Amino acid sequence: MTGSWMKIAVTHPILGLLLRIYIGAIFVTASMYKINYPGEFAETIAGYQIVPFWGVHIIALILPWTELICGLMLVLGLRTRAAAVLAGLMLVVFCVAIVVTLARGIPIGCGCFTSVEDPLSWKTLLRDILWLAMTVQIVLFPSALQLEDRLLLSLKEVEG
Amino acid sequence: MNAMTLAAEETSLSEEKVAASPEELDRLVFQRMYYLKTLYELTAELSPITSSQKLLESFLLMAMGVNGSSQGILMICDRQNRRVLSASRGTNDRDWSVESAEKHLYRGFQAAENRRLASMSVTFIGNPQQVFSVIETGLDVHTALLFMVDDSILGVVGLGAPIDGRDFTLEEKDILSGMTASFMVFLKNVRAYETVQELNADLSSTNDALRKTIVELTEARQQIRILEVAGIRLKQLFQQKIEQVGRFRAVDVLVILVIASLLSLLFNFSNPNGITLLPQEALREPASQVDAQTVQQLLGKGDTVLVDARPSELFNLSHIPDAINIPAPLFDIIYPMKLASRLQPGQAVVVYGRTFSKRYDEEVAYRLLQRHDDVRVMTGGMDAYEKQGREP
């Protein structure tokens, strides 16, 4: 009985909607500072010592815009699954980077939202894993108030 | 009066006269022959005709020939179909209206010798001049016959005075009656033929219309088939689209990445804080280099100052003893405090510190070279220096 209630709660479209807006908003917020100050974000990326030096600037330019577009698409409910998959992939990369950096013992800030932040910790990793779980929910289950649902409805009307 | 009845009566009359005298008999035989010849000629003349109008004209001409009249009219009124047919000779052709025709026929009936006219019968009109006034018909009618083809078709023949001015003889009237009776038979046949023709024409036009309708229907059916196919395709397309919506597609991810790349490049171009696609250190001429062993010797002589270009977090973690930490972002603040004051004339500056992701040393060396001539980058960084230190 408890199991079925849990299942209903986890797969509920309203939960999907809330998670979508939450994750979308986080991505939009995270992208803002990075888009405006790509130089500082490049320093942050270089701090992780994962990307080769010639690729740091390119990633510093493209990654924040990808975050912004994914975030907006999640909030609007446009191509939700594709946006959620891409957001999830980014979170996976972030998690791997955090684990590697923590293991190497490099003392740098996360650089997730701004360039000046507390140093990376296992808490940061835990937070990112939680966000990753939320994107998985968005990918797997339908959510309410999707922009595409309107389109789907009108298509069905035409077909009918 | 029927022509056959007339003939029969005439025959019985002749039989009485045969008994009277042989001369009279000859005359009667001649009359009979003339009568039959005239009917035969009429039949020969009228039989090939297939049009009512031509039949009327031919018959009128032959009727006028019986006593040599120079003028004549013939009018038929079809009351059922409200049509009047007429022919005239020696007078102006008149366009009869149905009302005018009926009026004349009525007057004719009033003056008819036999008022109880049956189908296919003929009667003379007693006083034709009164019935057909000269003003109305343009003809001084001398003799007139009324005939009834059937209940709806009535007709009248009016003939002018004979050329020699004499009246019609009884025989001539007899012949005229017989001719009119034959004419009625032909008229009936021609009208039947015309009806058949009209019906055929109707049928033909109906057939044409039907054929056209069939062609149109066939075209319509083809159009419907095309529309049906289009409808099915549209439906399939819709179903495809419906299935695609909400489903994950790799191409969407690619589109997002392409849009993000384009937007980022476009925005970076106009961003005052924009950066180059490749780091400046990769684009600039590298500073002159020195190996770790030489640096150790130089440091021993006290001719060299060592600068660690890495961020302070990494410097704090580990660094070469006596090295001064000047990270590039804080260069303008730290350089005057820590290095400018300490540096003696003739002393060289050696910079170290680079990672897989960033060449900090090149960046700081570039800045130092703006202020000092002897600035070099230590190859191998801290690792090479420490390795050198461990060697005997």
Protein model, in words:
- The complex is a heterodimer of chains A (about 160) and B (about 400).
- Chain A contains 7 helices and no strands.
- With about 160 residues, chain A is mainly alpha-helical.
- In chain A, α3 packs across α4 and α5 (about 80-105) runs antiparallel to α6.
- By secondary structure, chain B is of the alpha/beta class.
- Chain B contains 14 helices and 10 strands.
- Chain B has helices at about 5-20, 20-45, 50-65, 100-110, 130, 135, 170-245, 250-270, 280-285, 290-300, 310-315, 330-340, 360-370, 380-390; strands at about 70-80, 85-90, 120-125, 140-150, 155-160, 290, 305-310, 325, 350, 375-380.
- The chains are: A mainly alpha (about 160), B alpha/beta (about 400).
- At the A-B interface, α3, α4, α5 and α7 of A face α7, α8 and α11 of B.
Global geometry of chain A: globular
| Radius of gyration computed on alpha carbons of chain B | 67 Å
Number of domains of chain B: 2
**Distance between the amino and carboxyl termini of chain B:** 165 Å
Structural class of chain A: mainly alpha
Shape estimate of chain B: rod-shaped
CATH architecture descriptor text of the largest domain in chain B = 2-Layer Sandwich
Sheet having the most strands of chain A: none
Strand content of chain B: 5-15%
Q: Quickly give the structural class of chain B.
A: alpha/beta
As a percent range, the share of strand residues of chain A is under 5%
The radius of gyration of chain A is 18 Å
Largest interface between protein chains, with number of residues from each side: A-B, 52 and 43 residues
Helix content of chain A: over 70%
Poorly predicted spans of chain B: 1-6
Output mean pLDDT of chain A: 88
Head-to-tail CA distance between termini of chain A: 39 Å
Biggest sheet: strand arrangement of chain B: 2-1-5-4-3
Order of helices and strands of chain A: HHHHHHH
**Unreliable stretches of chain A, pLDDT < 50, 5 or more residues?**
none
